[in-house]
Design a protein that fits this description.
This protein has helices spanning 2-31, 50-58, 75-86, 91-102, 110-113, 123-129, 133-146, and strands spanning 39-44, 154-161, 166-175, 178-182, 190-191, 198-204, 208-213. The protein has a single domain, classed as Roll (C8orf32 fold). It is built from 7 helices and 7 strands, in the order αβααααααββββββ. By secondary structure, the protein is α+β, with helices and mostly antiparallel strands. The chain is globular. The model is unreliable at 1-33 (pLDDT under 50). It holds the Pfam family Peptidase_C93.
């Protein structure tokens, strides 16, 4: 009995060690900056992303004084006032306020809103006509930039929502060593390690882009 018991515990110990070894790459990926368990390969330049380049070239365009938008008259001016109101808040509060406020706006698909399959809006267009997932991410990105957050700490991430089987886009902000997710589908700002159903494809900011692979 003693020999059988020893053999059992020896096998059990090996199984536990194998399980730990197999699990360790995913843990190390998370610690080394992997997003949703995927590693990011950086690339310079933004040539593959004309819609994002257009946003960067035009996002500061003046909207005029309370330009009559399709839905949201004067919302751009209110946004500028909110930026000043949020400027002195702690960074964690800025993230929460921005995510919560922008998620209040109506979700509208690009074919309905713009008559095209995919359109990336600048903030004044979002406030005039609302938008879809990448437009929420874009307006959150530029709100944080206006509050002094560096572009190197932020990425707009295009991904696959495995649960819904659809493409999606979010903003990920690096803060205190964590990848924090600002998502129009999630009311709170959450750590990316808590999300299991997103498969990142690529991400962009002003400096370049990243390809995500397992």
């Amino acid at each position: 009995m003693t020999g059988a018991r020893s053999q059992f515990f020896a096998i059990l110990t090996i199984c536990i060690l194998v399980t730990c070894v197999l699990a360790s790459p995913r843990i190390s990926e998370a610690k080394s900056g992997g997003l949703f368990g995927y590693q990011a390969t950086p690339y310079s330049g933004l040539k593959p992303f004309p819609k994002w380049r257009k946003v960067l070239a035009t996002y500061k365009d003046e909207p005029g004084d309370c330009v009559s938008g399709k839905y949201n008259r004067c919302a751009h001016q209110k946004w500028l006032a909110l930026i000043e109101e949020w400027r002195e808040l702690p960074k964690e509060e800025q993230l929460k306020k921005i995510n919560r406020h922008m998620n209040l706006f109506r979700y509208i698909l690009d074919p309905v809103n713009w008559g095209v399959r995919d359109y990336w809006e600048i903030p004044k267009e979002f406030f005039a006509r609302f938008g879809d997932c990448e437009d929420y991410a874009i307006v959150k990105y530029f709100t944080l930039r206006a509050l002094g957050w560096p572009d190197k700490d932020m990425k707009i991430v295009v991904l696959q929502d495995v649960n819904l089987g659809i493409a999606h886009a979010i903003l990920v902000v690096k803060y205190k060593g964590k990848n924090l997710v600002l998502d129009n589908q999630i009311g709170q700002v959450v750590d990316a390690t808590r999300i299991r159903h997103y498969r990142p494809i690529y991400s962009v900011n002003e400096a370049g882009w990243w390809r995500h692979k397992p």
